Amino acid sequence: MREKNKAMLEIGMNLLFCSVAFGMYMVSHNYDFLEGTILGARTFPLLIGGILVVFAIVNITCAVKRLKLAKSLGKVEAKDIHEERVGSVFNILIREYRVLSAVILLVLYFLLLSFVGFLIATVLLIPAMLYLLEYRKPLPVVVITVLGTAFLFTAFQVLLGVPLPDGLLFG
Amino acid sequence: MLGYLFDGFFTLFTTMAAPALLGGVILGIIIGVLPGLTATMGIALLIPLTYYVSPSVGLSLLVGIFAGGIYGGSVSAILLKTPGTPAAGATILDGYPMAQNGQAGKAIAIATIASAIGGLIGALILTFLAPQIAKIAVRFGPPEYVLLGVYGLTMISYVAGKSLIKGLFAGCIGLLISTVGIDPITSVPRFSFGTLNLLTGFELLPILIGIFAMSQALEGVRDSRMKAPEQLKLTKIGISLKEFFRILPHIVKSAFIGTFVGAVPGTGTDIAAFLSYGEAKRSSKHPEEFGKGSIEGVAAPEAGNNACVNGAMIPMFTLGIPGEAATAVILGGLMVLGLQPGPLLFVEKPEVIYTVFASTITSNIFMIVLGLTGARFFAKVLSLPKSVIVTFIFIFAVLGAYSMRNSMFDVLVMGIAGLLGYLFSILDYPVPPVLLGVILGPLVESNLGRTLLVSDGNLMIFFKRPISIFFIVIIVATIGQNVYKHLKQKRK
């Protein structure tokens, strides 16, 4: 990932956790201290949240410095870096696109598990994921899908007795 | 103690624990052989399976995966010049040149024998030393537990990697996660927002699977286009008696180094392997052969890293403090199985703990048999398509998170933890501190509350007890050493 994007992502992540800590701080006002002490349900979260914000500020400061450096480098050596980036940006895009697609597939799998149950959801996920990962020989994909689903069903539902999701449609 | 150990062996071989251990070693070797998959991930992924069996059987499975996983990394290190696990990094230095010289079979035989003997020595030290430490630790009261937890949290500085601040930030996230649920002192539901799922807090297992397995699967998706390195041919497996006696002193020495390194929290199998390699080179009669295919250069790191596996379990079992990622995950596994890690485990569940010790000893015997007879099969695993493996890790992670409470909420938590783990990996934030925070947070918070209630809020209670003072000294020393180390690194 490019340094600039990385720094921005890091700033975003630290800000997100700062807001989580702030949210916890606000919510924790509902919890009282034990009488005459500083002990209570809010003590530990407030302490940890406060420390987290301090570390987050340090991280954000470092990331901002890197962001500035990346920008200044971009101006000075624009030509060289542009040539270098043609290849790497292309690769980065492909890589990030694949991860994003995998995440979308997982969200769909989660929804399908809830609605149509384990068997149908898994039979759909395996070939989709293999396609995404560029394993596209039809026969092996069918064999892997059928055997893999059967193995997982046997291992979890039959041997371990884990009731796999039936889905709202069939449940 | 010997009586308990015999009982442990009896339980191991008269229940499903021995087959589970064997299965664990096989699975561990397969996971270790495959570059990109670590023993830590394997343990995280298979913890859900242990939930449905007795603790002895479940822990035997995990111990098998850990030992097999560390050994398995040597196969790909020798044949592909790619360590299956970081622990096998030092094995490449002489293992791959041996394979290039047409001695791949000999290198694998040496790695197998050294791993098994090193692991066996480490397991024996664990078996006889751990109960002695537990005897002292069993006297701990709430103040000692607070300081023990704080000492555990200082381990963040060791597992933080390049940036101490990033590690501490990650640790705070883990601690904040641990605050969700019922407050241990006032019993007030905290941050549950009226939902039943959050009332008892986040389950450990989905978080563990998410940050260690799902994030690694996402990394696998990212790197799936990378071309696999060419695999060298596996020749006849075996070594002569003369070669065995040449490597034996190095194996024994490395086993002690590895166990010691493992017992020091914050180190790891990779450090043990490189230290053992360095010592072997220093003391060898043929130092000029190192780096060109020295048999001692293969034996020493392999003995060191497998002994380290057992050394790392000493603080985990006796104090409930994980020294590195894999033991942190096993610690999580103990908690999932309903066991409270720490000295009381030796008093309350000696039958479980001594079965685990019997498993650590036996795993090395399984390893040597499997390694020498099944090396060709394990080498074939290297040709499995990565895309298929990654796909099944995804599904296993989802089912693993779901299986504990049959809850889709846990799957959601696992997914979010997986994304967080992936984000951490691309931003160079360490993941193990999150787990340390989640595990140690409740220990510190509940005991701190009890301590302050008993002492009427007087913090001097920590300075009135000898074990507390001992912990304060080592906490201050650990923090001081790490701050100094990081400042020194920054100056460079």
Strand order of the largest sheet of chain B: 1-2
Proportion of residues in extended strands of chain B: under 5%
Structural class assignment of chain B: mainly alpha
- The ordered string of helix (H) and strand (E) elements of chain A is HHHHH
Uncertain spans of chain B? none
- How much β-strand is present in the residues of chain A? under 5%
Number of strands of chain B: 2
Number of domains of chain A: 2
- Report the helical percentage of chain A: over 70%
Could you walk me through the main structural features you see in this protein, from its secondary elements to its overall organization?
Chain A folds into two domains: 1-76; 95-171, no CATH class. Helices cover 79% and strands 0% of the residues of chain A. Chain A is built from five helices and no strands. In chain A, helix 1 runs antiparallel to helix 2 and helix 3 (78-116) runs antiparallel to helix 4. Mean pLDDT of chain A is 83; it is low at 76-86. Chain B has 492 residues and is mostly helical. Chain B has helices at residues 2-14, 17-33, 39-50, 55-80, 89-100, 104-137, 142-154, 156-159, 164-178, 196-199, 204-222, 241-263, 269-283, 295-319, 325-336, 344-348, 350-381, 386-403, 408-426, 432-454, 466-491; strands at residues 181-182, 189-190. Chain B has a two-stranded antiparallel sheet with strand order 1-2. Chain B is globular, with a radius of gyration of 22 Å. Chain B starts with a helix and ends with a helix. The model of chain B has no long low-confidence stretch (mean pLDDT 86). At the A-B interface, helix 1, helix 2, helix 3, helix 4 and helix 5 of A face helix 9, helix 11, helix 18, helix 19 and helix 20 of B.
Quick recap:
The complex is a heterodimer of chains A (171) and B (492). Chain A is an all-alpha fold and 171 residues long.
Task: Break the fold down into its secondary structure elements and pairings.
The complex is a heterodimer of chains A (171) and B (492).
Chain A: H1 3-27, H2 43-76, H3 78-116, H4 118-132, H5 138-159
Helix pairs in contact in A: 1-2, 3-4, 4-5
Chain B: H1 2-14, H2 17-33, H3 39-50, H4 55-80, H5 89-100, H6 104-137, H7 142-154, H8 156-159, H9 164-178, E1 181-182, E2 189-190, H10 196-199, H11 204-222, H12 241-263, H13 269-283, H14 295-319, H15 325-336, H16 344-348, H17 350-381, H18 386-403, H19 408-426, H20 432-454, H21 466-491
Antiparallel strand pairs in B: 1-2
Helix pairs in contact in B: 1-17, 2-4, 2-17, 3-4, 3-11, 3-15, 3-18, 4-5, 4-6, 4-14, 4-15, 4-17, 5-6, 5-14, 6-12, 6-14, 6-17, 7-20, 7-21, 9-20, 11-18, 11-19, 12-13, 12-14, 13-14, 15-20, 18-19
